[in-house]
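Give me structure tokens for this 485-residue protein.
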Amino acid sequence: MVVLGGGSGGLACAKQAAMLGRRVAVLDNVKPSPQGTTWGLGGTCVNVGCIPKKLMHHAATLGHSLDTAKTYGWDVPDNMSVSWEKLTAGIQNYIKSQNWGHRVQLHQRNVEYINAKGTFLDTHTVRFSDNKGNETFIKSKHFVLAVGMRPKYPQVLGAARHAITSDDLFWLSKPPGKTLVVGASYVALECAGFLTGLGYDTSLMIRSIPLRGFDQQMANLIVDHMVSSGTSVYKHCVPEVITKDNSDKLDVTWANTDSGTASCDVFDTVLLAVGREAQTQDLGLDTIGIELDKESHKVIGGYDGDQEKSSLDHIYAIGDVLQDKPELTPVAIQAGKLLANRLFNDSNQQMNYDLIPTTVFTPLEYGSVGLSEEGALSRYGDDQIEVFHAFYKPLEYAISGQNADQCYIKVIAHRGIAKPCKVLGFHFLGPNAGEVTQGFAAAMQCGLTVDQLQNTVGIHPTSAEEIVKLHITKRSGLDPVVTSC
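Here you go.
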């Protein structure tokens, strides 16, 4: 088997196939970003995604904790600041240890790692070139496409020349300084959030709505919290020109899409997070007849009842490059392992793409599983759903007096005539949302009902116990603010 792409999904699939006794090769090569940034084996998650993002988020959270520690009696010096150089050095060293770890694991499983980009010569042959231009050809019975996605650059004058993306941020040699983040994706909101938390003057520019595809009530609460935490937000705005002045500052001109008025400001860094695009170009897929979506250029799967099978029955796709599937690392890993088991271990288990949990690591974390309120209304109608909700105050906020206006929980249930009412969507906005959400995701996979949720004894005192205490519905019109234990 040949795997094209050395990210989380591709590596998981390769290692699982090797453990089942198959001969496996992984081809992976990172094209430098327009700013020249490159990295090692492991894909987006390890190098420029989940891992460094979470570490930056944690660093920002620690800084906030130092401020609140004073109210708990700690004698903390004023005007403390973060060392960008020390922070990024620590993160980069950890990433490099992961790169090496992946290479060691491939070697231990006798997987051949080839640092090159593969291109299909025919349906069973891939070719690649070394640094000297020497071509090599590999034939295989099975191929897996796991090439992932990279950030898009908008059609904005000066964007590709002067702006950076998440591909570059974690490898900057100097602090980003005053930063403009352009975009409304979870990447944009997370980056703007931790940059603000690290003490940098940060602005967020949103063209339309935040976190498209997520529950919009939760998304707007996140933005409200970011504003209250110090991030400036320009809504309904798009950049038009980015230029660099003689002092290496970036002059940005943008337009308000509602009023048509133009504005400008000067920044040290412009970070673009306006979406990502599948890396299926230049793989020769068109020459062998792989069907791609015309807009996203992702691989269309689902042939012969197999979620990951492409239009050619021996070529599969997993992870972000597979059309209409969640762009999440754990999804790619699980899909890759299950695919290897189906190909080489007589398994027929398909990946379950329903009820996939995720967390957005904004300053106030947001965890979700299942349908948004908009999605539930669209699918079932208002008379068929019940929304249980609560605004709550984490106990950790009690002494420090932190603003808890955006700490909110929402559970969406099917409002059938006969009980039990199945939980369709879970949404939690608050501290440690990722840790809280994981357990409820398992419960929802088991068919969690409202009765089961409400009959669960809470762990006191925690924020998570407010979930099992939910009893007020939006339909009732009652005040959802929790006022006591």
